[in-house]
Design brief:
The complex is a heterotrimer of chains A (about 1050), B (about 160) and C (about 325).
Chain A (H helix, E strand, L loop, with lengths): L1 H15 L6 H10 L5 H12 L4 H18 L5 H14 L7 H12 L8 H12 L7 H17 L1 H6 L2 H11 L5 H16 L8 H9 L18 H12 L6 H12 L4 H15 L4 H4 L3 H14 L3 H19 L10 H13 L11 H12 L3 H21 L3 H19 L14 H13 L3 H16 L6 H17 L3 H17 L1 H16 L11 H21 L3 H20 L6 H17 L3 H25 L14 H16 L3 H17 L31 H8 L11 H14 L3 H15 L6 H19 L6 H17 L5 H11 L6 H12 L18 H19 L5 H13 L3 H19 L4 H16 L3 H5 L1 H11 L5 H14 L4 H4 L3 H7 L9 H16 L7
Chain B lengths: L24 H4 L9 H8 L22 E4 L4 E6 L9 H15 L5 E6 L7 H9 L1 H8 L2 H12 L3
Parallel strand pairs in B: 2-3
Antiparallel strand pairs in B: 1-2
Chain C lengths: L4 E8 L6 E6 L5 E6 L4 E7 L2 E8 L7 E6 L5 E6 L4 E7 L2 E8 L6 E6 L5 E6 L4 E6 L5 E7 L6 E6 L5 E6 L4 E7 L2 E8 L6 E6 L5 E6 L4 E7 L8 E8 L7 E6 L6 E5 L4 E6 L10 E7 L7 E6 L6 E6 L3 E7 L4
Antiparallel strand pairs in C: 1-28, 2-3, 3-4, 4-5, 6-7, 7-8, 8-9, 10-11, 11-12, 12-13, 14-15, 15-16, 16-17, 18-19, 19-20, 20-21, 22-23, 23-24, 24-25, 26-27, 27-28
The chains are: A mainly alpha (about 1050), B alpha+beta (about 160), C mainly beta (about 325).
Chain lengths: ~1050, ~160, ~325
């Protein structure tokens, strides 16, 4: 025992007189380990605490407080009680002692064993004896933390203090300037408000002491270590100010005043604060301020020059209106919502009658913002404005005025949609008739902008549940048919097609009954007396057909429509095949594209999928096969269906449809397709009059390609099926495909065979047999490539690149052997350029095979992985390659880098920058172009490595603005434009040089180049100039 | 514009913006020389921002394509602009912005004349004379507060 | 017409900027230029070519609009848009800034030394013309501020042998000033141009004056004894119109040969010769030579070399100086 007291005394001595700070830790450890108790420590401090030197007393208290910070969790209630009494007493001591006292008290507020009543007594002493704002920053933080701690654990006791607590807090924070402490103080204020502390008569004081910081005007110092942002403070203060309706009478006048400010950020903060507070308010809180608030909001929207403020103002108006809409209407109370809306209508409605003046739009936006707040608001406002909008529309004759009115109407419909539920009757029911006649009259005008606006109004009206009648829809469809058949303006047809798509989803029957038959008649009508017709008429007839083909796809979202529309499209193909020349190759391609679109957008995949499986796919295969088998010497020439463009357009129809098939149908498709291509089994095809010995995958007589190229359709059938679907006879199929890819000399045939092979192996399960297959394939490919005399090196190369892609996507280890071979071919005198280009094939998504849509095995980030594994090889290859081969490496590099996600480009750039800069000075325009297109996105957010190389970059880019290739000139100017957005101090030194160099492209012979130069030079002029950047 | 200031013309007539120029096949043909034409000049100035309103000069009908005349062969450009009201105090500033935009955007072989549309402004002659005086224009652009306003009119336009 | 103006040399004098003005020193060995890059450059002949001898920077905050040599050739004055006029003193081959004359409210447009070397005149956009006196200690004192124009004063020039000053203005007029009881007064206002008068110059005798204007004409004015004997009387005796396609920015009358040269906004330099047989009250000038594309942009200034007949310098918005030789046909 005596030993212990010696220990504690020596610790005290060393800390207090010896000024050894570390002894506090030792003392805390002593208490924790039970060597002495906290009260023994207090006793041991006796001498220092009674010293006549305040510094010594402070040092003594500091030791105790530091120990308490370590061990507050282990104190007993009795100890706590004594310590609190001790500390409260010390608060009355000399001011130098206050900091350690507060430190100790803060530690005690964290005690679980705080005796009842002690929180109150601590706070009373604190509020009474300490003037918080004369303390230093850290001590003030200490006080706030005490309050926060006690509020967490002793809420009911604190509430027992009544309004005194609020008053004490108000006095404590009054005058606080430090942002860190403000965050704490705002947190306390927020707790007071949100946790229901009694504000008593101090509501206004609490408001005053916090609102004096509004709007927050704080810019953190550039080297701020605390990371407090202006936004943090704004949000913390906003939570206080908007927390209670009791503040309404003080806050609302303040906001009205601050909205008048010239500082945009103050306006914005005011608007957002207002939006936040009204969600807590009731109409009576707002009543007396509504006129003032409206006047401010109106001014901000009418006169604003900032979209941000305008949109914040509109959001606020919506919030205000929806607050008023929440009030329950009783017979005797004033209807504050309708009074408020009257104010808005009085100021805005008449501007809607001036569709050529500036204020029409701000007025419409304000009304629409109010309209979108609630059903009641939208009823009141639409009832007030719709009749006059309709009347204006009828009275105005200028198309631009009518269009503005129609757009205003459109926005009203959309604003109502946001607050209307489907079960309710549409707000516009009362205006159905005038609205429809407005739309139909606009559709009948010859002005295309007006027609386009009318189609979007029509779409919005149709989406209002139950608004339009069947006869309205029929009339609308009549208008659409007329426009599709007669209107030349492409923008109008696009708008009509979109509108038809939206309406057909809701009203399929009308489209089946009216639109499809009418379009079909038009498409299959022979242009009368074709020889005598003007070329322009023929041209317009073709345009009509293109529109019909597009609209057939657009309307086919419901299965019932698909049943009717797809036969028309198929008939286009069969009509082209049977001859007569009714349809051009382009039209047949469009028909295929429409079919693909239908396959893609089908909502009910089961019913539509069956239609594709049962009818469309067999029909397409049958037509293609008939064309392929046609005697080449047949009279009337070959069927257009052997054309590569048409076949290539059929592939995505089949593959899109197959990728969405149900498992059973998918399996059936696979086995039908395989037996057709391997065994010539044509039993599932319609029009079955085919010869019996069809061998599509075998080398044809005389190297004829009309049958061999059919293999591209096989890709569609088997490469896009879900991975679970078993492809029958897979080994035989793969081996025949591999053979075919060597034996054919027809590019579409051997490329398709290679793609099909690749598409299939990508989905094959891992394992030894798979590896054996790949090894065999590789061996044959390599030996062909290594034999320079081989006549099928290109074929072998094609197969290699597709197999490499198939393996790369699934991270197969054998891929490396193939890509290494590819790198070595960059030096090949024949295949070098092709090898360089093929990197773009490896990195790009392929449209018809090996993509995620086809259920291919595509691992995430395979590009990054490929890049990180190979970039060093490329750099090394570049460095050792002979001069004339270097451009192949640069092209390969730019092909790879181009496709990397920007994040990766930015991190990899430092290593590659010198190579990319080299690529910019490579004489190959293709390399220049692809390097520029890879640089441009990186320049938008330039990594430091790039900034260090600015001099080289600027020189090389400026050298390219006079390139003989227009596309290079344009791309380099875009990059130079992007440079102007770099940090000003980095690019300013280049300003004069860039401006001078860019005088020349201003006089470029090509307008597109001049346009880029004008934009870029304009930005560079603004750089470092007042009002610019 | 701050909330307190009153605009000279708070509710001006708004005109439709013309669409983007349609791309022609010859513009994409490397070998064809595209002369600088009226539309190209108009495209340079139509989106200049009005100093008072958040609207472009085109939307306020201050500039119109029919009032732009270029002769590429003779290297001359003439632009007439129409202030929204005859006493518009911003007329010189608008003219200056148009002139500066053209000076920055055209090859320097061009002689650029910017005038007020005859009969549309009370101080037409005085404004025209100022805009034609290159010494005054040069001095104005060395005045940073004036340059700031001009740059603001031009910067939002791109 | 035989091409009688031949290019001697072209100098990229103020790159990335415009060259506003060039001025020969009195013995014709040095040429000073100034421009939008706020700098003054001094050019001298070395062998067959003209090279930059020195660059005077940091004297002005804005465009240097004009430069003028003192009659002794040891001082150079520069007028700038920064509202000041700088006096530079020649020291060996270099120049040092001696003093800065302040007082004008805004852009100083022109500065010029009287033949005596004791007086200096400046003019400004503030519509005033100031006359400064120079003493032996190189102290400059403003003796008069005259406000006779209603708009910017573009140019001031001294009579070759009398203490007589002429100014040209944006108000389309020319004013002529004389000293009266220690004060300078406007004694005549010459009206006739229909737009800004950009420049003017006296002939060798000082009896005639040539002015050029934004109205695309050149006018010749002649002094006549006035009836009252007090006021000066100048009359326009000849107007050259139809020659210039745009604003005529500068004109110079060769004191050795009597030939006139003009600088024009249509990029051309033109030389006019007087028909010596014509009636002196109705002089006739004809175009003797012109270079239509003398520069790529507006020609701002032309000036004859004071000692070497036929040698002249011009400068332009493209930042270049061109030196030309005018050779007459026989």
């Amino acid at each position: 025992m005596a030993e212990d007291s010696t220990l504690v005394l020596s610790l005290v001595e060393e800390f207090v007189s010896g000024l050894q700070d570390s002894k506090a830790k030792d003392a805390a450890k002593g208490v924790k380990d039970g060597q002495f108790t906290i009260l023994q420590l207090v006793e041991a401090l006796g001498l220092s605490l009674t010293s006549s030197q305040p510094q010594t007393r402070a040092r003594g208290v500091q030791l105790l407080s530091e120990v308490l910070q370590e061990i507050y969790g282990e104190l007993a209630e009795r100890e706590v009680e004594l310590l609190i009494a001790f500390y409260e007493n010390r608060l009355k001591d000399h001011y130098v002692i206050t900091p350690p006292v507060l430190q100790g008290l803060r530690a005690l507020t964290k005690c679980a064993a705080l005796p009842p009543g002690s929180a109150v007594s601590m706070l009373r002493s604190l509020f009474q004896d300490v003037h918080v704002q004369s303390l230093m920053l850290a001590e003030r933080a200490c006080v706030y933390n005490m309050l926060i701690n006690l509020m967490e654990t002793r809420e009911s006791e604190l509430k027992g203090l009544g309004a005194d607590f609020v008053f004490g807090f108000v006095q404590s924070m009054d005058g606080e300037r430090d942002p860190r402490n403000l965050l704490l103080a705002f947190q306390i204020a927020k707790n007071i408000i949100h946790r229901g502390y009694d504000l008593g008569k101090f509501t206004e004081e609490l408001f005053e002491v916090t609102s004096c910081y509004f709007p927050i005007d704080f810019t953190p110092p550039s080297n701020d270590p605390h990371g407090i942002t202006r936004e943090d403070l704004i949000l913390a203060l906003r939570a206080v100010l908007t927390g209670t309706p009791k503040f309404a009478e003080f806050l609302l006048p303040l906001i009205i005043e601050k909205l008048d400010s010239d500082v945009p950020s103050a306006k914005l903060d005011s608007l957002q604060t207002l939006t936040a507070c009204v969600s807590q308010y009731e109409h009576k809180d707002l009543a007396e301020f509504l006129e003032g608030l409206w006047a401010s909001l109106r001014r901000e929207v009418f006169q604003t020059s900032s979209e941000k403020i305008e949109s914040a103002g509109l959001t606020t108006l919506t919030a205000l209106t929806s607050c008023l809409s929440r009030s329950v209407l009783t017979s005797e109370s004033e209807d504050s919502l309708s009074n408020f809306l009257d104010l808005i209508l009085k100021d805005c409605k008449h501007h809607l009658c001036e569709p050529d003046l500036k204020l029409v739009w701000p007025s419409a936006k304000l009304l629409q913002a109010a309209c979108s707040a609630s059903m009641r608001a939208s009823h009141i406002i639409t009832a007030a404005v719709m009749p006059s909008l309709v009347e204006q529309y009828t009275n105005r004759t200028q198309c631009s005025h009518r269009r503005t009115l129609l757009e205003v109407v459109q926005r009203f419909i959309q604003s109502v949609t946001t607050c209307q539920s489907d079960s309710e009757q549409s707000v516009f029911s009362a205006f159905r008739e005038p609205l429809c006649s407005m739309v139909f009259s606009a559709l009948s005008e010859s002005n295309s902008s007006l027609q386009i606006t009318a189609t979007s109004v029509l779409t919005s009206l149709a989406q209002q549940a139950g608004l339009l009648s069947d006869s309205d829809i029929e009339l609308a469809v009549d208008h659409m048919i007329r426009l599709l058949l007669t209107e030349e303006d492409e923008r109008v047809s696009i708008a009509v097609i979109d509108c038809a798509g939206a309406l057909a989803e809701l009203h399929p029957a009308v489209f089946i009954a009216k639109l499809i038959p009418r379009l079909k008649r038009e498409m299959f009508s022979e242009p009368m007396d074709r020889d005598n017709r003007e070329a322009s008429e023929l041209h317009s007839h073709q345009a009509v057909r293109q529109r019909c083909l597009s609209v057939l796809a657009a309307i086919s979202s419901q299965p019932s429509v698909v049943q009717e529309s797809t036969p028309v499209l198929l008939e286009v193909l069969s009509s082209a095949h049977t001859g007569g020349g009714l349809f051009s190759v382009d039209e047949v391609v469009s028909a295929c594209q429409s079919l693909q679109k239908i396959a893609k957008q089908a909502q009910d995949t089961e019913e539509t999928g069956r239609c594709f499986h049962d009818v469309i796919i067999p029909r397409l295969l049958s037509l293609a096969l008939q064309a392929a088998l046609q005697d080449e010497g047949a009279s009337g020439g070959r069927s257009p269906l052997v054309e590569e463009v048409i076949l290539s357009a059929m592939v995505p129809v089949i593959s899109t449809a197959c990728s969405r098939l149900q498992p059973t149908l998918a399996g059936q498709t696979a086995s039908r397709a395989v037996s057709l291509f391997l065994d010539g089994d044509v039993s599932f095809l319609p029009d079955n009059s085919f010869p019996s010995h069809i061998q599509l995958l075998k080398k044809q007589q005389g190297d004829s390609w009309s049958q061999s190229q059919m293999v591209c359709l096989l890709i569609g059938c088997v490469c896009s099926l879900p991975r679970s679907v078993e492809v029958p006879q897979i080994d035989r199929l793969l081996s025949e495909l591999e053979d075919m890819s060597y034996t054919c000399s027809h590019p579409l045939s051997y490329t398709s065979a290679a793609k099909c092979f690749a598409g299939l192996i990508n989905k094959r399960p891992q394992g030894d047999s798979f590896d054996d297959l790949i090894q065999r394939t590789m061996k044959r490919v390599f030996s062909t490539l290594d034999s320079n005399s081989s006549s099928v090196r290109i074929q072998a190369f094609t197969l290699m690149i597709w197999v490499a892609k198939a393996l790369l996507l699934r991270y197969h280890p054998l891929c490396t052997a193939l890509t290494d071979k590819l790198f070595s071919l960059l030096d090949d005198s024949d295949l070098g350029p092709m090898a360089a280009d093929s990197f773009s094939l490896l990195m790009n998504d392929s449209a018809d095979v090996l993509n995620r849509g086809c259920h291919a095995d595509v691992r995430i980030m395979y590009r990054q992985r490929f890049f990180s594994e190979n970039s060093a090889k490329l750099v090394q290859g570049f460095n050792t390659a002979p001069q004339e081969k270097k451009s192949n490496y640069l092209k390969a590099l730019s092909n790879i880098v181009n496709k990397l996600p920007k994040q990766v480009q930015v991190t990899e750039l430092p290593a590659l920058l010198s190579l990319l800069l080299e690529a910019l000075s490579c004489p190959d325009q293709g390399v220049q172009l692809s390097t520029l297109s890879c640089l441009e996105p990186v320049l938008i957010n330039p990594p430091p490595a790039l900034i260090q190389q600015l001099e080289a970059l600027v020189s090389r880019l400026l050298a390219l603005i006079t390139s003989p290739a227009m596309s290079v000139r344009i791309a380099s100017l875009r990059c130079i434009h992007a440079l102007s957005l770099f940090p000003v101090h980095e690019v300013l030194p280049f300003r004069a040089r860039v401006l001078k160099a860019m005088a020349q492209p201003l006089d470029d012979k090509k307008r597109l180049v001049r346009n880029e130069a004008v934009k870029a030079r304009g930005e560079w002029f603004l750089l470092g100039s007042p009002g610019g950047r | 514009m701050s909330g307190g200031t009153r605009l000279e013309n708070a509710n001006p007539v708004i005109f439709q913006r013309s669409g983007e120029r349609l791309l022609t096949a010859s513009e994409e043909d490397e070998d064809v020389h595209d002369p600088i034409d009226d539309r190209e000049i108009f495209d340079m100035i139509r989106s200049i921002n009005d100093p008072e309103h958040p609207l472009s000069l085109e939307e306020l009908n201050v500039v119109e394509q029919v009032r732009v005349k270029v002769n590429d062969a003779e290297s001359t450009v003439g632009v007439e602009f129409t202030p929204t009201i005859p006493h518009c105090s911003m007329a010189t500033l608008i003219g200056l912005s148009i002139k500066v935009k053209l000076l920055r955007s055209l090859p320097n072989r061009f002689k650029i004349d910017v005038h007020i549309t005859p009969g549309t402004h009370a101080s037409e002659e005085a404004v025209n004379k100022q805009l034609a005086d290159k010494e005054r224009v040069a001095a104005a652009l060395e005045n940073s507060s004036l340059l700031e306003v001009v740059n603001q009119c031009l910067s939002r336009s791109i | 017409m035989k091409e009688a103006l031949s290019l001697v040399q072209r100098l990229s004098a103020h790159p990335d900027s415009r060259c506003w003005f060039v001025s020969w020193n009195p013995n014709g060995t040095l040429l000073a230029s100034c421009g939008g890059d706020k700098a003054i450059r001094i050019w001298g002949r070395e062998g067959d070519s003209w090279i930059c001898k020195s660059v005077l920077q940091d004297g002005h905050q804005r465009t240097v609009r004009k430069v003028a040599w003192s009659p002794c050739g040891n001082y150079l004055a520069s007028a700038s848009f920064d509202a000041t006029t700088c006096i530079w003193k020649k020291k060996n081959d270099d120049f040092e800034s001696l003093t800065v004359l302040e007082g004008h409210e805004n852009e100083v447009k022109c500065v010029t030394w009287a033949p005596s070397g004791n007086l200096l005149a400046t003019c400004s956009r503030d519509k005033s013309v100031w006359v400064w006196e120079v003493d032996e200690e190189d102290e400059y004192e403003c003796v008069t501020v005259v406000n006779s124009h209603t708009q910017d004063v573009k140019h001031v020039v001294w009579h070759p042998n009398q203490e007589l000053l002429a100014s040209a203005s944006y108000d389309n007029n020319i004013c002529i000033y004389k000293e009266e009881d220690d004060d300078w007064e406007c004694r005549a206002t010459l009206q006739g141009h229909t737009s800004t008068v950009w420049s003017l110059c006296f002939d060798a005798t000082g009896k005639r004056m040539a002015s050029c204007s934004d109205d695309r004409t050149v006018k010749i004015w002649k002094e006549y004894p006035s009836e009252s004997g007090q006021d000066l009387s100048w009359k326009c005796v000849c107007t050259l119109s139809g020659y210039h396609g745009r604003t005529v920015y500068d004109i110079d009358w060769c004191r050795l040969t009597g030939a006139l040269v003009t600088a024009c906004g249509d990029d051309a330099v033109r030389v006019f010769k007087e028909d010596e047989t014509a009636n002196p009250d109705e002089p006739v000038f004809s175009l003797a030579a012109q270079v239509t594309k003398a520069h790529n942009q507006d020609v701002n200034c032309v000036t004859w070399n004071p000692k070497e007949a036929g040698l002249l310098a011009s400068c332009s918005d493209d930042g270049e100086i061109a030196i030309w030789r005018f050779q007459e046909e026989d």
